[in-house]
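Table S2 (text version). Query chain:
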Amino acid sequence: MSRSALCLVLPLLLVAGCMREQAPQGSGIHMTDGLGRTVFLENLPSRVVSIAPGATEIVLAAGAADRLVGVSTADGDVPVRSDLPRFSALPLDTEAVVALQPDLVLASEQVNDPAHADLFDALDIPILYLESSTWDGVLQSIEQVGDLLGTSDAARKTVDSLTVRQKSLLERTSGLEKRPTAIFLVSQETSWSFGRGSFVLDLMEWAGLDPLMTEFDTPAPVLDDEWVLMRNPEVILGSFPEGFRIEQLLEHHPTWASLDAVRQRRVYPIPSGLILTPGPRNVEAAWEMARVAHPDLFRTPDSP
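Corresponding structure-token output:
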């Protein structure tokens, strides 16, 4: 932390200690967050700061956009008000967050540093890490935020809608006789991907694909070129940049020209905003995967 940050934070730490001693016992709101911490709030929050794009999306999904008083610069394509103050997320600009005078900070247990909990606890600013490692966790977080911010009805309506959307996709892909083998790449350059237990693998399975990355126990494996050649995926998906062409992938991985996916031109970009941030928009990433991998399933009059 910078020297100026310490000048701001240290006095607040002293005030925070006094405030914690005066907190009434047995009153207020107690919640368990995604890190297993018990978080106490005296009242329903009215000034919320989000320090993760996924947390911001959950607030919007819960119908509580009007409670946000600040978001991070990482919320590039999250549809929030253009006049909301923004601050650095990596590294986290603690001074800017404190200056917004939040009565609740929302974080993601998948993205944010757990050590921030001690800092904000010391400042007597409640911080809640939202669960987003699984789809069920995302839905539970939407309902939790709705309960916390007084928008329970809107949050449950969103959860119901997302559940219908997921089930509708599963109905389309459940009858597939064969599921194409597939990999997902975060970049067309270094082959970062997602390992076993990742929400991205769940999305691929909803989309009627057989993700080959289940072989990896690590959450963010790098797919070696030789490994990819040996597995010979039938479909390659990736959060590639706008205007992506298969030839750009081959510039970095020339040996992949022999892959079935490349020869059959079955290499597809998936919008990064839908898939790289664990949150409610992930279901739309699964729909997009299914559309490109199984176009025949969507050649019907009632296709969405």
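Notes on Table S2: The longest helix spans residues 152-173. The two ends are 49 Å apart (CA to CA).
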